[in-house]
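re: the backbone from monday

yeah here it is again, tokenized this time
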């Protein structure tokens, strides 16, 4: 009997230990995706949604902290040994969202904080001193509301810090808004603004799961590290150097360097000019998953560097006839990638028309590729019927082979291909920009 009791106690102890290392996640998502994705630290946990729209699973945790439900970037708080139920209709996310379980109360509070209207953009019209005083008052106000909830001490202390960063990330935008609202002022941040932002630690690993903290980190290092930039490339290099000089936490350094490299590639539509940035990343990033992630992206962009063979394509024109890359062999080809919903794209089309007239007798062809869903093809056809532009016009699915092979992650985008089928520039100047200077260097 004694041995039996000992065995029961051991089993209960083992169950208790295993349960204390995980948080149970479950719930129901109507009209949503087929999976629920939750970002915890640097790991994305995915839970499949069944035919009745229910999901469930476990997340390993050593201590309580913030997480992000990737749909709608929702702030969550998770704690080992606890459970959280999430119920929402994706068609009315904020209005239908509610929580249950032992973590239901805390996460309901976080939801209230997310949707609360507490920040007025008119605050940016205040002078620097008044603005910072308002930011401090907002922090105090939100902390008083938190303390009235009587949550446990561990969450309350962590939440006080998150509240500060949620205000600080908005405050970090003050110079940009101030310059936009009062361009004649030529505003430069003073000591009051700088001291306020500097009062928030940038090596706070406990908050890495919080979206507010991550956003603040990015805004802060871009603001501080990018001062006096000469150009976009120097700007990113300066920020990388600033991160190395000021960030001591490996976790946060890995996060910032990964975001910096990814942001550079997206903003510049490629890896040209990123040699120094990539060398710093590979030397300093200690997270193998992040290194593998960036390396995979770099491999894709390397395929369309200048001098590489342009990926072949077959697209359908307005008459539903096939248009292939090989049909342009022997001529230069200038490709405009656009979308009917993109205003900057449509603003370029008249300039493209003028460009085609100017080079009508030269050895260069002009092709437009509209990207979008299958339901947007009719909108594209109608637009071209109403707006007559020269050149060959084609349509491509936003997830089609052309979009994948040429890494179309944003529009407008312009690509220049040589007569031998090799890429000259996969991120060429736009028709309203420096394209004439580039054309003058070619034997058209």
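seq for it, each position gets an aa:
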């Amino acid at each position: 009997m004694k041995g039996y009791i000992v065995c029961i106690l051991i089993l209960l102890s083992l169950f208790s230990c295993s349960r204390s290392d995980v948080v149970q996640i479950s719930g129901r998502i109507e009209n949503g995706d087929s999976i629920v994705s939750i970002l915890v630290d640097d790991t994305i946990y995915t839970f499949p949604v069944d035919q009745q729209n229910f999901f469930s699973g476990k997340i390993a945790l050593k201590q309580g902290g913030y997480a992000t439900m990737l749909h709608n970037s929702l702030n969550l708080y998770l704690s080992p040994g606890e459970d959280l139920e999430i119920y929402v209709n994706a068609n009315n996310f904020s209005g239908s969202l509610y929580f249950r379980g032992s973590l239901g109360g805390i996460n309901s509070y976080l939801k209230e904080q997310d949707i609360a209207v507490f920040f007025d953009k008119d605050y940016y019209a205040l002078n620097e001193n008044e603005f910072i005083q308002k930011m401090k008052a907002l922090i105090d106000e939100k902390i008083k509301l938190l303390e009235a909830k009587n949550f446990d001490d561990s969450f309350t202390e962590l939440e006080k810090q998150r509240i500060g960063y949620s205000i600080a990330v908005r405050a970090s935008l003050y110079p940009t808004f101030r310059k936009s609202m009062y361009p004649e002022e030529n505003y430069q941040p003073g000591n009051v603004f700088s001291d306020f932002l500097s009062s928030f630690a940038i090596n706070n690993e406990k908050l890495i799961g919080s979206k507010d903290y991550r956003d603040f980190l990015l805004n802060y290092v871009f603001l501080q590290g990018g001062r006096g930039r000469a150009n976009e490339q120097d700007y990113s290099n300066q920020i990388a150097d600033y991160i190395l000089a000021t960030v001591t936490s490996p976790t946060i350094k890995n996060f910032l360097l990964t975001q910096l490299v990814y942001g550079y590639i997206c903003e510049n539509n490629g890896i040209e000019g990123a040699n120094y940035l990539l060398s710093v990343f590979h030397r300093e990033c200690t997270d193998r998953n992040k290194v593998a992630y960036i390396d995979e992206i770099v491999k894709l962009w390397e395929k369309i560097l200048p001098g590489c063979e342009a990926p072949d394509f077959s697209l359908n024109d307005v008459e539903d006839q096939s248009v292939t890359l090989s049909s342009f062999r022997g001529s230069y080809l200038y490709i405009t990638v656009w979308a009917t919903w993109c205003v900057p794209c449509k603003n370029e089309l008249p300039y493209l028309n003028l460009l085609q007239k100017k080079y009508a007798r030269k050895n260069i062809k002009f092709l437009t590729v509209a990207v979008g869903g299958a339901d947007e093809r009719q909108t594209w056809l109608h637009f071209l019927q109403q707006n007559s532009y020269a050149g060959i016009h084609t349509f491509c699915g936003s997830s089609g082979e052309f979009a994948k092979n040429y890494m179309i992650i944003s529009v407008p985008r312009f690509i220049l291909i040589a007569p031998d089928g090799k890429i000259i520039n996969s991120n060429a100047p736009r028709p309203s920009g420096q394209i004439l200077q580039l054309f003058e260097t070619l034997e058209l």
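The chain is about 45% helix and 20% strand. The chain has three domains: 22-115, 121-302, 314-439.
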